[in-house]
Write a structure and sequence with these properties.
Blueprint: H1 4-8, H2 32-44, H3 54-92, E1 96-99, E2 103-105, E3 110-113, E4 122-128, E5 134-140, E6 146-149, E7 162-172, E8 175-181, E9 183-194, E10 197-202, E11 207-209, E12 213-216
Antiparallel strand pairs: 1-9, 1-12, 2-7, 3-6, 3-9, 4-5, 4-7, 7-8, 9-10, 10-11
């Protein structure tokens, strides 16, 4: 039996012409008309002393039909996957997300949260730059979980607008009980799909991954 690829390059002995070469397999643009043209070329160029069986043509037709259906199914699944991704991205927009990553100070008071620690008698909110350099400390009550800060008014040296990291250090007397990152809410202004990873853009252009989110409201 001549395959479709073989017969596409076989010279027609009776006419002295040759069929144009075809690509191997079927592309996304394949259709039934293309298959019929290839099948006609195969029949014209078959060996008359050893013709192709009708059952072989039926097998080729079934194979083509299966491949074409699989291509259409893959295209449909791809479109559905794209729609689901964009739907997931849209769900994040304009939500307030809680994170312990650095957030942007725009001049308005902001609230950070750090649950009280047992046996703590006092605590400091430590304000650091994004690269971890400590910039200021604000003493607060050991029993305060939600802490409102005004970085432009409450500090001896007010901080300019920018992104800052907030941690809380607890003390018992003069001894440190350790530090923990403070959580704060920030609005989502943009959502991006970065190679399958959802990236949230917060105020001031601060970017965090969805894995850094602890709550949404």
């Amino acid at each position: 039996m001549f395959s479709m690829i073989d017969t596409a390059t076989t010279t027609n002995a009776a006419s002295g012409s040759s069929a144009p070469p075809t690509k191997s397999g079927f592309s996304d643009g394949s259709d039934f008309a293309m298959f019929l043209r290839m099948l006609t070329t195969q029949m014209q160029n078959q060996n008359p002393l050893n013709p192709v069986e009708a059952s072989d043509f039926a097998v080729q037709l079934a194979t083509f039909s299966g491949v074409e259906q699989q291509i259409q199914t893959n295209q449909l699944l791809g479109r559905l996957a794209d729609q689901m991704i964009f739907s997931d991205l849209a769900n994040w927009l304009h939500k307030d997300v809680a994170t312990d990553a650095p957030i942007y100070f725009s001049g308005a008071p902001l609230t950070v949260n750090a649950p009280p620690v047992a046996h703590s008698t006092s605590r400091d909110v430590v304000i650091s730059s994004v690269d971890g350099r400590e910039l200021a400390r604000v003493p607060v009550s050991a029993q305060r979980g939600d802490i409102t800060l005004d970085l432009g008014q409450d500090l001896p040296d007010p901080l300019p607008h920018g992104a800052y990291q907030f941690t809380v250090e607890d003390f018992q007397g003069s001894g440190s009980l350790g530090t923990s990152k403070a959580v704060q809410y920030a609005p989502v202004q943009e959502v991006r799909n970065n190679n399958g990873q959802i990236v949230l853009v917060l105020e001031g252009g601060v970017q965090i991954s969805s894995a850094q989110i602890t709550a949404v409201r």
